[in-house]
Design goal:
Among the domains are: 11-92, Ubiquitin-like (UB roll), CATH 3.10.20; 333-461, Pleckstrin-homology domain (PH domain)/Phosphotyrosine-binding domain (PTB) (PH-domain like); 479-518, no CATH class. The chain is of the alpha+beta class and 641 residues long. The chain contains 18 helices and 24 strands. Helices cover 30% and strands 24% of the residues. The strands form 4 sheets. It has a 7-stranded antiparallel sheet with strand order 14-13-12-11-17-16-15, with helices on one face. Strands 21-20-19-18-24-23-22 form a 7-stranded antiparallel sheet. A hairpin with a 6-residue loop joins strand 20 and strand 21 (564-569). Keywords: Cell adhesion, Cell junction, Cell projection. One of its GO terms (molecular function) is integrin binding. It is found in: Cell junction; Cell projection.
Length: 641
């Protein structure tokens, strides 16, 4: 017979594993517990029984079978669902992780393995002095990319050794609050007291002296080029299917690292995930042109002027700008009217080219037989809202074309416009780009867009330097470090060196910040900028397609040819949801347009998070402070699995 007190206690044995480094101390500890014991009480009983004097504040229970943390210490074991067969590991929440940065440097630091990835990335970016952490995330290299790298490693003679920068003693790595970093909420930069250049907050984590400056420079500056050995190790996608493999490894921002199978000392990639860069304005980020004393002396006065100009620009921006310009934008809707060539593809690869009188008004293009007939009905009116705008330019051949892919009921209508010169092309191209987003030329971004296109054309219009042209062999340069493999196979090394030197002449006189911004603008002008690819199967289709996800649209692309089939704008999207049972994404747009697809190259949660993430980033405003609405991000990206 059992007494009523013993029967009512409902105690049971629970075997706990303690992750510690003390020799001679058992790691598996049995405890008698009850279902109404809360998690915090279980932690207290365990620490009292271990009898090891150390700081246990970073420890928490990891449930091995269910792959989850027991972080709500006020919950009881019954509420958590813990029973006698549960395998609980008492381990640290912050563990060492290796991160491969965008500048190809690898750092080793302590990261929270129990926080959601979104929060962990935010802490990492504070530690590494990277602003706008919401634009980045962690990427795990997929098996396909790792296999290709292993094949290359077998053929290589000597594997490239990798220098790892250890940041394990940093404040965030130790689980302590981070410094505000280079840019605090008042956007006040921290400057290096020696060189005067913007300093990384990581300099405070190292000892005084030359080593501090050296480690700071490693993180703050990227290498001018990658070595051929490093390039050989990198996974270089050749096709759209290869590019889709790269995006299969994005971690779920709403789950922790441990929940996604990341182990201590694993290596992940820290990369920009969302290609919508907030407040990318060089006027607010003034820095030195060079660290050399000669350059500092020669640019001292110009830097003072640059700071004053930046402050003046900021003052005008905060005050709302010139009121007369605002009134002018409201009352005056500009238009373009020019003779352009219309190119329409026909069967048997033939093209019909004919000159018409084109008029661009609002977001539409109308064309007429000639200028005199422009008062009547147009031959055709093209609405560019939601279309794809692709540049078709060859500056050397004086070819300035604009390819328009206009959505129609059964796919895309292709229209080619050909301009006569750079200025005409820049004006019409800028108007087409804005019209595709639903904006007119009255928008304040029209003139900057024109200047950006002209700058990009200027970079392509290489001006030959006589010395560089005559002595390319005297320049110590490895062209394969600057251009893609397809060009190294097509041209000789001497030819590529000369072409690179030609292009460099157009940016050699710029300041460092201006050159970087020009590079980003040129990158943003490329047709495939900001597209992340996934292989999907649309509902009702019998073949696989590629889905391109951008900051403002989705593009259905033919897997075989790479040609866009249909475009859907986020601005026209009414709602989207995921059927988690069959892993299908369904999206509803205006005008009763609905699509549904399953993702074949990655989990559908990744695409769901991409869509929600871009919508979240579109809510950012300069009027708000820099505190992110993390709850809103998880509402838009978390899903209901």
């Amino acid at each position: 017979m059992v007494s009523s007190t013993e029967y009512g206690s409902h105690t049971w044995d629970l075997l706990l594993t303690v992750d510690h480094q003390h020799e001679g101390v058992e790691k598996e500890i049995p405890l008698q517990v009850t279902g109404d014991l809360h998690v915090g009480g279980l932690m207290l009983k365990l620490v009292e029984k271990i009898k090891i004097a150390q700081d246990w504040s970073d420890y928490a229970f990891w449930w091995e079978q269910k792959k989850c943390w027991l972080l709500k210490t006020h919950w009881t074991l019954d509420k958590c669902g813990v029973q006698a067969d549960a395998k609980l590991i008492f381990t640290t929440q912050h563990k060492m992780l290796r991160l491969r940065l965008p500048n190809m440097k690898t750092v080793r630091l302590k990261v929270s393995f129990s926080s959601m990835v979104f929060r962990a990335v935010s802490d990492i970016c504070k530690m590494l002095n990277i602003r706008r952490s919401e634009e980045l995330s962690l990427l795990k290299q997929s098996e396909g990319t790792l296999k290709k790298k292993k094949k290359k490693d077998k053929n290589s003679k000597e594997p490239a050794t990798e220098d790892i920068l250890n940041l394990c003693n940093s404040p965030v790595s130790s689980g302590l609050p981070a410094n505000p970093g280079l840019y605090s909420k008042t956007m006040t930069p921290i400057y290096d007291p020696v060189s005067g250049s913007p300093a990384s907050s990581t300099i405070t984590w190292f000892s005084d002296g030359s080593s501090a400056e050296q480690n700071c420079s490693i993180l703050a500056l990227s290498h001018p080029t990658c070595s051929p050995e490093m390039l050989a190790e990198m996974y270089q996608p050749r096709t759209l299917a290869d590019k889709a493999k790269l995006n299969a490894g994005w971690l779920d921002s709403s789950r922790s690292l441990m929940e996604q199978g990341v182990l201590e000392e694993d290596q992940l990639l820290l990369r920009f995930k969302y290609y919508t860069f907030f407040d990318l304005n060089p006027k607010y980020h003034v820095s030195k042109l060079s660290l050399s004393s000669e350059t500092q002396d020669s640019t001292c006065e110009s830097e003072v002027d640059e700071v004053e100009a930046a402050l003046s620009n900021l003052e005008v921006t905060l005050e709302g700008g010139n009121k007369s310009n605002i009134l002018e934008d409201i009352t005056d809707i500009p238009k373009l009217a020019d003779n352009l060539k219309l190119v329409r593809p026909k069967k048997l690869a033939l093209k019909a080219i004919k000159t018409y009188w084109f008029v661009f008004r609002d977001t539409s293009i109308s064309y007429f037989k000639n200028k005199e007939s422009a008062q009547g009905e147009p031959i055709e009116k093209l609405n560019l809202k939601g279309c794809e705008v692709v540049p078709d330019v060859n500056v050397a051949a004086k070819k300035f074309g604009i390819k328009l892919l206009i959505p129609v009921a059964d796919g895309m209508n292709e229209v080619y416009l050909r301009c006569d010169n750079e200025d005409q092309y820049a004006r019409w191209m800028a108007a087409c780009v804005l019209a595709s987003k639903g904006r007119t030329m009255a928008d304040s971004s029209y003139q900057p867009e024109v200047q950006k296109i002209l700058s990009f054309l200027q970079m392509k219009n290489w001006t030959m330097c006589s010395q560089a042209a005559s002595e390319p062999e005297n320049v110590d340069m490895k062209p394969e470090c600057f251009v893609s493999p397809r060009y190294t196979k097509k041209f000789k090394s001497k030819q590529l060196t000369a072409r690179i030197l030609e292009a460099h002449q157009n940016v050699s006189q710029m300041s460092l910040v201006e050159a970087k911004l020009r590079f980003i603008q040129a990158w943003q002008s490329l047709p495939e900028f900001g597209l992340s690819y996934y292989i999907v199967r649309f509902k009702g289709s019998k073949k696989d397609d590629v889905l391109g996800v951008s900051y403002n649209r989705l593009i259905r692309i033919d897997l075989a040819t790479g040609d866009p089939i249909t475009t859907w704008r986020f601005s026209n999207m009414k709602q989207w949801n995921v059927n988690w049972e069959i892993r299908q994404v369904a999206i509803e747009f205006d005008q009763n347009v609905s699509i549904a697809f399953t993702c074949l190259s990655a989990d559908c949660k990744i695409i769901h998070e991409y869509i929600g993430g871009y919508i979240f980033l579109s809510t950012r405003s300069k009027d708000h402070n820099e505190t992110l609405d993390e709850e809103l991000f998880h509402k838009l990206t978390g899903g209901q699995e």
